[in-house]
């Protein structure tokens, strides 16, 4: 037999075996045209200051469009009010006690390296999975233009544009703390147009990826798009500032009176430089935060338009969310890392195939942890057995369904030697919080009378039974937030953990 014939036979049998392997590994590939795509949009540090969430001033016509054709979750909560821990939890479908990630600049491959992330599970079923911008943790703005603390195994394509906000304008940005932009309040009304900004470039890249996805009719896609705004620095093109007159920006009144009944850890996210704020600076900061939201919303609109133009909208599930909420002066706090409603509550909207109750609002508390099992179910993607969230599909079909009926969030206080957790549970009526197992204080708020959480009822004798009941519920949820071993997985150095060095 000639070498050529031998090679030919080998090639034939290899092809045959490859085809068989494909049949075995990807049994659903042939049904690809029926499987829905996923467009997963996440904004950074965005609270519910959106038109569709009833905000009286912020305009967000494009995110509102998603809500009109989907289900809006009115009580959706992050599991940890900080970028890295929240995103690892959401994308792993595990509580932070099970990912082992409670701080930024870490990735779950350091703690649970063999776990399949959300998009990894889609990849295993033949989906094309792409990331544009911030999905896992990124230092903003330092890591913009890099992979940040990304997990390469989650994606087939990663795009990291950097715009004028990162490359040109930093010397012009006003900041409460000199030369610090991402960690503190900082803002700038840019003279440059949308498409020169990082988030504008993200939308342009998303258009490009969608055009290529549209050509491949056989292969569904999971496109994850992580916008950076309204994370600090609040940089947006000037025209977006015009809709928000500085003097009309809302100031929080009566803070001193309000915080008297709070345990110190409840206010542990306060930063020293926030004491430099006066009312004028507060209003300027809020104006820039709102402008950044409207700018980001316009970029979301460009991507939605492209989805429609390409005829992809009908078979694409669109998710819009954020990694945690944000304070704008409530309880004297700014930014994130508290367990109050403003810091834990996130926008969450799911639209597209499989969502029956279009334009409806679901009131039952849910968590970002629920996204993984929900999207996997909607797309018939098998998941790891240890996921800890619930499938929201029944609520997408009937928004009066209660599901689990509560959501839990946690946060770390103290330095590495004195670290202790605070945990909070949100039910339809109550928020109940325990600091360091209750040893460092408790909080109880009745949302039917006190939506701004200004009256801590934890010490009211006549609510003793409520406190006992919620404490039991919270502590059961905490036990359930750990892996089967009961131990938080340690951070391991030297395991596969690429891209962990900041530029
Ligand atoms: Ca964030």
Automatic annotation (TrEMBL):
It is an enzyme of class 3 (hydrolase). Residues 36-380 form the Sulfatase N-terminal domain. GO terms for cellular component: cytoplasm. InterPro entries: Alkaline_phosphatase_core_sf, IDS, Sulfatase_N. Transmembrane segments: none annotated. It holds the Pfam family Sulfatase. GO terms for molecular function: choline-sulfatase activity; iduronate-2-sulfatase activity; metal ion binding. Its EC number is 3.1.6.6. CDD domains: iduronate-2-sulfatase (cd16030). Its cofactor is Ca(2+). This is Choline-sulfatase. The gene is betC_8.
């Amino acid at each position: 037999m000639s070498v050529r014939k031998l090679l030919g036979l080998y090639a034939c049998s290899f092809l045959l075996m490859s085809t068989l392997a494909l049949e075995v590994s990807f049994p659903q590939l042939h049904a690809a045209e029926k499987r829905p795509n996923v467009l997963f949009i996440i904004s950074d540090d965005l609270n519910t200051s959106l038109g569709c969430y009833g905000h009286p001033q912020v305009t967000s016509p494009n995110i509102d469009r998603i809500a009109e054709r989907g289900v809006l979750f009115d009580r959706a909560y992050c599991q940890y009010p900080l970028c890295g821990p929240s995103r690892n939890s959401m994308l792993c479908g595990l509580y932070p006690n099970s990912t082992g990630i409670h701080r930024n600049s870490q990735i779950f491959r350091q703690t649970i390296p063999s776990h399949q992330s959300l998009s990894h599970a889609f990849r295993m079923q033949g989906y094309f999975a792409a990331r544009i911008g911030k999905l896992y943790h990124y230092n903003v703005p330092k890591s913009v233009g890099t992979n940040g603390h990304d997990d390469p195994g989650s994606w087939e394509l990663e795009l990291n544009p950097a715009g004028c906000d990162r490359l040109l304008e930093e010397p012009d940005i006003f900041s409460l703390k000199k030369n610090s932009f991402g960690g503190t309040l900082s803002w700038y009304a840019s003279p440059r147009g949308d498409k020169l900004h990082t988030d504008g470039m993200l939308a342009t890249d998303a258009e490009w990826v969608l055009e290529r996805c549209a050509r491949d009719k056989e292969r569904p896609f999971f496109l994850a798009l992580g916008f950076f705004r309204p994370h600090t620095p609040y940089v947006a093109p000037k025209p977006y500032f015009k809709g928000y007159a500085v003097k009309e920006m809302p100031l929080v009144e009566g803070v001193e009176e309000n915080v008297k009944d709070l345990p110190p850890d409840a206010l542990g996210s306060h930063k020293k430089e926030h004491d430099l704020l006066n009312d004028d600076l507060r209003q300027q900061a809020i104006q820039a935060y709102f402008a950044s939201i409207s700018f980001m919303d316009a970029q979301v609109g460009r991507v939605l338009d492209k989805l429609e133009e390409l005829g992809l909208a009908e078979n694409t599930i669109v998710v819009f969310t954020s990694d945690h909420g944000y304070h704008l002066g409530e309880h004297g706090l700014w930014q994130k890392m508290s367990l109050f409603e403003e810091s834990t509550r996130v926008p969450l909207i799911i639209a597209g195939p499989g969502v029956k109750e279009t334009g409806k609002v679901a009131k039952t508390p849910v968590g970002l942890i629920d996204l993984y099992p929900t999207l996997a179910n909607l797309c018939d993607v098998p998941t790891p057995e240890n996921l800890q969230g619930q499938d929201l599909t029944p609520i997408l079909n009937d928004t009066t369904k209660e599901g689990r009926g509560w959501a839990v969030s946690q946060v770390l206080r103290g330095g590495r030697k004195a670290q202790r957790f605070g945990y909070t549970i949100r039910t339809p009526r109550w928020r109940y919080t325990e600091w360091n197992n209750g040893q460092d204080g408790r909080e109880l708020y009745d949302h039917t009378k006190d939506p701004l959480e200004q009256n801590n009822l934890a010490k009211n004798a006549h609510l003793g039974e409520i406190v006992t009941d919620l404490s039991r519920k919270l502590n059961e949820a905490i036990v359930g937030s750990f892996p089967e071993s009961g131990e938080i997985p340690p951070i391991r150095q030297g395991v596969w953990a690429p891209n962990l060095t900041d530029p």
